[in-house]
Amino acid sequence: MDPEANARTVAQMMDGLDADFVLTPEMTPLLQKDPDALRDAVREEAEVVAPYSELAREHAVHLLLGSAAVLTPDGIANRSVLIDPDGAVTARYDKINLFEASLPNGEVYREADSYVAGRAPVTAQVGNFAVGLSICYDLRFPALYSGYAKGGAHILTAPAAFTRSTGRDHWETLVRARAIEAGAWMLAPAQGGLHEDGRGTWGRTMAVSPWGEVSVLDHDRPGVLEVEVTMAAVEKARGRIPAWRQR
Q1: For labelling alongside 63, which of 9, 86, 133, 201 has CA 20 to 30 A away?
Q2: Which of 33, 95, 107, 172 is catalytic?
Q3: From residue 118, how far is each of 21, 40, 70, 95 by CA, in Å?
Q4: Among this protein's residues, is 111 annotated catalytic?
Q5: Is 213 a known active-site residue?
Q6: Where are the alpha helices (DSSP H) in 60-171?
Q7: Looking at the 3D structure of the chain, how many domains does it have?
């Protein structure tokens, strides 16, 4: 609920990291499900991204601000922002598939009441790796990731804030499936725990290799998951099973 405090938390978690690419979850600066409260709190991209650009410069890393609510001329976007080691924004992806669900516990979600949908997939570059960007609910739409694979993406990103009930039943299956289908690394940093807006999220940040091997933070508390991502793993998986290009 406090963007400045959340930026400080990210800064603390980055201290001491030996990394080239750092990713944060969906809605890192502000998680707010109430449409009126969101409209009051939302800011333009430059203001939202500024502290994360500074962190990227300070640590000389590529940093994916998993997503943030940002004000645009068309409304509020759920936007993933890639920042380079100089602090410059090199790619933006607005969530195409907006979450909609009626859950057994009575929770109802309809992101379209608050957000405008993105219009196009986005592939960006991080070093030698091509990276296909997505956010959370996009995981349920496999054609997006097939397109990224056909376009040459080596890494797929899916920052998320899955609800507890859908996360418990679907999170790991969906993340693993997208990695295996594409023969690509899937990096999925996730919000976890109970939040000030009353929402509970599943957490369990995951990294999945192109062959489907899982690394996970097996809890919903703050933490850092470190993974070595290699091009060789992509080439090996795609050489074994070329479904990613046959589809």
Answers
A1: 201
A2: 95
A3: 24, 22, 12, 5
A4: no
A5: no
A6: 142-150, 164-166
A7: 1
**CA-CA distance, 76 to 79, in Å (whole number)?**
9
Whether residue 150 lies in the annotated active site: no
Question: Cα separation of 210 and 229, whole Å?
Answer: 10
Catalytic pick from 26, 33, 196, 213? 26
Q: Tell me the residue range of the domain where 192 lies.
A: 3-246
Residues 47-74: b if buried by 16+ CB within 10 A, e if exposed:
ebbebbbebbbebebbbbbbbbbbeeee
Q: Give me the residue label for tokens 């990291």.
A: 17
> Up-side HSE of residue 238: CA atoms within 13 Å toward CB?
21
Facing residues of 214 across strands? 208
Q: Hey, what long-range contacts does 39-43 have (CB within 8 A, 24 or more apart)?
A: 39/76, 39/114, 41/3, 41/69, 42/69, 42/70, 42/71, 42/76, 43/3, 43/70, 43/71
Q: Is the pTM of this model over 0.90?
A: yes
- CATH code of the domain in which 123 resides: 3.60.110.10
- In this structure, the dihedral spanned by the alpha carbons of residues 180, 186, 192 and 197, taken in order and rounded to 10 degrees, is -110
Average pLDDT per 10 consecutive residues for the chain, totaling 247 residues: 93 96 98 91 97 98 98 97 98 97 80 95 98 98 96 98 94 98 97 88 97 96 96 96 82
CB 204 within 8 A of CB 190: yes
Catalytic residue among 107, 136, 172, 213: 136
